[in-house]
Design goal:
By secondary structure, this protein is of the alpha/beta class. The protein has one domain: Purple Acid Phosphatase, chain A, domain 2 (4-Layer Sandwich), CATH 3.60.21. The chain contains 6 helices and 13 strands. Strands 6-5-4-1-12-13 form a 6-stranded mixed β-sheet. Strands 7-8-9-11-10 form a 5-stranded mixed β-sheet, with helices on one face. It has a two-stranded antiparallel ribbon with strand order 2-3. A hairpin with an 8-residue loop joins strand 7 and strand 8. Helix 2 crosses helix 4.
């Protein structure tokens, strides 16, 4: 039995600000060397899987949901990509995610319980074709029509466990005062539409996209959570334009215990730039 779901997202592999191991990265026509800040972020990634995940899962088996934007692509004519060749970006992402997939528990057929959610079209392709190709190469668990990545997923850890809903997208705000507004609204819409059509109401809603961590536990509702996951990309020119805050790196774990289901996390953030003294 698997009682733990590890959720990661927004690695943006292929970005000069994205997740990258501290090695010489082979490209189609050369090499890329990660920056000092990328090396720092990679140290957190390494610590996450070696120390934090075993602790947060109590050393028990887990599955992994990669909740979108594993790749950078070339959004908005950005100059931040290490290569415009998507094969280079997919190769880097596979190098990073393959070891994570192999940590996952397996099903009765020996398939690792690793799932891929589709991210933003500007990063992963108009029909998420680049993320689908990556998911297929990784052997991610396919959906009901055989696709190895999907825009939305509903999951239970057992027949009677809470229902979890995964999607990548959530509205972005530059104001901390409104950080909970859109996730709360989206969860209410999810509940309303489920009740309207006589479908099971999700207990836990997981979203990503913001590169920030947020968790809400509706009062008096055991096993009910609204979560926005942290990411793994440093602050981009676009982020500098919309917010004064720094992105948050990390992961969440949804854990089902004997008493209840709850959410834990491990997060980090880069320090702001040094002060100028004159």
């Amino acid at each position: 039995m698997v009682n733990n779901v590890v959720v990661i997202s927004d690695e943006h592999c292929g970005s000069r600000l994205g997740l990258c191991p501290p090695i010489k990265i082979p490209l189609d026509n050369g090499y890329y060397y990660p920056s000092a800040l990328q090396e720092k972020v990679w140290a957190w990634w390494d610590h996450l899987w070696k120390v934090d995940i075993p602790e947060l899962t109590h050393g028990e088996p887990f599955c992994v949901v990669n909740n979108g934007d594993a790749l950078e692509g070339k959004p908005f004519n950005s100059s931040e990509a290490i290569s415009d060749n998507m094969e280079d970006q997919r190769a880097l992402a596979k190098m990073i995610l393959e070891p994570i997939k192999r940590m996952c528990a397996t099903d009765e057929n020996g398939n690792h319980l690793f799932f891929m959610i589709r991210g933003t079209e500007s990063h992963v392709g108009k029909s998420a074709e680049h993320e689908e190709a990556l998911a297929k190469s990784l052997g991610a668990i396919p959906d009901h029509i055989g696709k190895h990545s999907q825009y939305e997923m509903f999951m239970r850890l057992d027949d009677n466990g809470p229902l979890i809903n995964f999607k990548h997208h959530i509205g972005i705000t530059g104001s901390t005062a409104y950080a909970a507004t859109r996730p709360s609204r989206d969860y209410l819409e999810l509940v309303y539409n489920s009740v309207m059509w006589g479908r099971a109401v999700p207990n836990i809603m997981v979203r990503s996209h913001r590169h920030k961590f947020l968790v809400l536990e509706p009062e008096g509702k055991d096993d009910n959570w609204i979560v926005v996951t942290p990411g793994w990309q440093l602050k981009t020119p676009y982020a500098h334009r919309i917010t004064d805050d720094m992105p948050v790196m990390g992961a969440i774990v949804i854990r089902k215990s004997d008493e209840r289901t709850y959410v834990t996390k491990r997060t980090w953030s880069i320090d702001r730039i040094p002060e100028v003294v004159i």
